[in-house]
Amino acid sequence: MTRVHDNLEPAEAKMAANHVSVFYGDKAAIDDVSIEIPNEYVTAFIGPSGCGKSTFLRSLNRMNDTIPSARVEGEITLDGEDIYKSGMDVVQLRARVGMVFQKPNPFPKSIYENIAYGPKIHGLASGKAELDEIVEQSLRRAGLWEEVKDRLEDSGTALSGGQQQRLCIARAIAVDPEVILMDEPCSALDPIATAKIEELIDEISGRYAIVIVTHSMQQAARVSQRTAFFHLGKIVEYGRTSDIFTTPLEQRTQDYITGRYG
Amino acid sequence: MSGPILFLLALGLGLAGWIAGRARAWAFRKSVPDGRLASLPNYHAWYVALWIAVPVALFAVVWSATAPSLILQSVLSTPEASQLPAFGFQRDNILREAQAVASGAAPAVFNEAAKPLIEPFREAMARYNLMGFAAALVIAFLAGAFAYLRLKPDFAARTRVERAVMFALLLASLVAILTTLGIVASLVFETVRFFGMVNPIDFLFGTQWNPDPMSGADNPDASRYGAIPLFWGTIFIGAIIAMIVAIPLGLMSAIYLTQYADPRLRKWLKPALEILAGVPTVVYGYFAALTVAPMIRDLAQSVGIEGASSESALAAGIVMGVMIIPFVSSMADDSIAAVPSAMRDGSLAMGATRSETIKRVLIPAALPGIVAGIMLAISRAIGETMIVVMAASTAANLSANPFDSMTTVTVQIVAMLTGEASTEHHTTLSAFALGFVLFLVTLALNFIALRVVRRFREAYE
């Protein structure tokens, strides 16, 4: 059972999972997980490899739908609305719950087109000027504008790894989501690029609910306010990041954050 | 006659060398302190065997090429040969007959004049066969002894054998290349002869194709050899009508198979689609000529199109397009599947629908591969013969009406080569010129396709 720290300050829950299990075929990757994702906070999911944290993250915007054998049980809500109910528009859901992947995956298009892609398919801009505005604003928020403003027509794949990942964050921001899911966004980046991404997460954190999966305890400690420790498909412990790292309630959490396993 | 026997001899002697080499290598194992040789005994065995078999086989090739003329020479120098008539044709016949009887290929002579020559032929053959055997044995012994004596415990037989393997592989790949060169050379040779009779400018830019096999062989009427209608027919049927059918259907089936189909369904559908590529083109030809063509003619007449031919370009083009579908779809399938799934996930995570993802991300990323597939399909279509031979007509028509009858380059090549004119006649030679130009066109298309594929391969590394 999940141990929840009882000193959590009240926060508006943006998303909530109630008794969620995720199966790949017959195998349960997530087993009866319940958690609230607070709005305007950064929530970190930590845990050893294969503990199900990425699987759980992908079920928050139904990206698991693309895997034929995956099946989700239980209830996940966004603003109180069940996202797995029949008649739910997955396209709308993903526009509200954006995602940044482990490996930067810019489209093989120009930098401009990478950002304009989402606004175009969702009809967010009524003209070229407005689209330009969205592109510039998204790139500014992602801290990439100064570096690319003179070469918006260059291919997005020609950027460095760190720039590509910031481009992907800008791309996610461009559709004005409410939640941003980040699946180990820095695992393919060097320390300097990582620092820039962390800085960026910090800057945009008040605006969205952000969930970040990470293998780096230091990163979780640096960027998040809440931390959930996953182990063997369950959330072992959930609380304020500072509490999880200084006064964990569970021995397993203690062992993991001190590097005894994982 | 002695060639195959010499080859068998090469194999037999090679086997003997193999056994001897292996035995010697085994013997080394006892003499070396730790029993370890630089190469395994088998490699020593192969080394000796190759040294025997390859020179003997080469000798067999040379000998079977030169022996007949040596035999002939010796027969002609006998007193019996002085009776031969001087006239070449008769003389050759007599000699050939005598030789056939001597070698046992014919039971008896027809021409009495050949009789006295049988015995000299027998003698000469026996003599040269013996010489061939002796020479082969000497070569085998010398080469085998050389190889056998080189064997030592520390002899690197393995690397030598490895090199021999490489040469064998090189030779195998050269065969295909040399054959291609031979084809090109023969085409060029005949084409040059044709262009000696008909001006290439008239050929390439003339608009009347109406060769006359009955006309004099010396002075062809160049105005009858305008190839434009043929190339237009080829392009109209193969590259326009067929592609209008094949590109959308091939692409859409590839998209369905990679993006929408359930894996179980895909397991059935993909092989079923590939069966299309295995249908003999002759069978497509029946289908086009007997089923599709009348259907199209009736359809055209029922909607009031006058003069629809029963050998319409449309029928041949549509069936050819169906034949090409698997080419387009399997190339498109491969290149769409090669787009990293991260691209697809990235687009879906932005809230794009599946078809938006396909249209805006997957197809643009896979485009080079798709284009290459289409190029290969076009070069396949314009080189295709059987369907058009059966379904298209032989009338050269420069028309943009798909219901008209039209002919293609390949149909005319078949018609000219199977016609009644001699191989020296300009109507026959025109087939080579057509083939040569067609070859250049498909070569160019394949070349472009390969270049595009190469660029595509670099895209995600």
TrEMBL record, chain B:
* Membrane topology, as annotated: Multi-pass membrane protein
Compartment(s) of residence: Cell inner membrane; Cell membrane
CDD domains from the entry? TM_PBP2
Keyword entries, A-Z: Cell inner membrane, Cell membrane, Membrane, Phosphate transport, Transmembrane, Transmembrane helix, Transport
Q: Please classify the protein's predominant subcellular localization into one broad category.
A: membrane
SUPFAM superfamilies, sorted: MetI-like
Q: Which Gene3D superfamilies match?
A: MetI-like (1.10.3720.10)
Membrane-crossing segments per the record: 49-72, 130-151, 163-189, 230-251, 272-293, 313-340, 361-382, 431-453
What InterPro entries is this protein classified in?
MetI-like, MetI-like_sf, Phosphate_PstC, PstC_N
Q: Which residues form the ABC transmembrane type-1 domain?
A: 232-449
Q: Which domain of life is it from?
A: Bacteria
**Pfam families xref list:** BPD_transp_1 (PF00528), DUF3708 (PF12501)
Entry's family note: Belongs to the binding-protein-dependent transport system permease family. CysTW subfamily.
Which purpose does this protein serve, as stated in its record? Part of the binding-protein-dependent transport system for phosphate; probably responsible for the translocation of the substrate across the membrane.
**What name does this protein carry?**
Phosphate transport system permease protein
Q: Which organism is it from?
A: Parerythrobacter lacustris
Give the gene symbol.
Answer: pstC
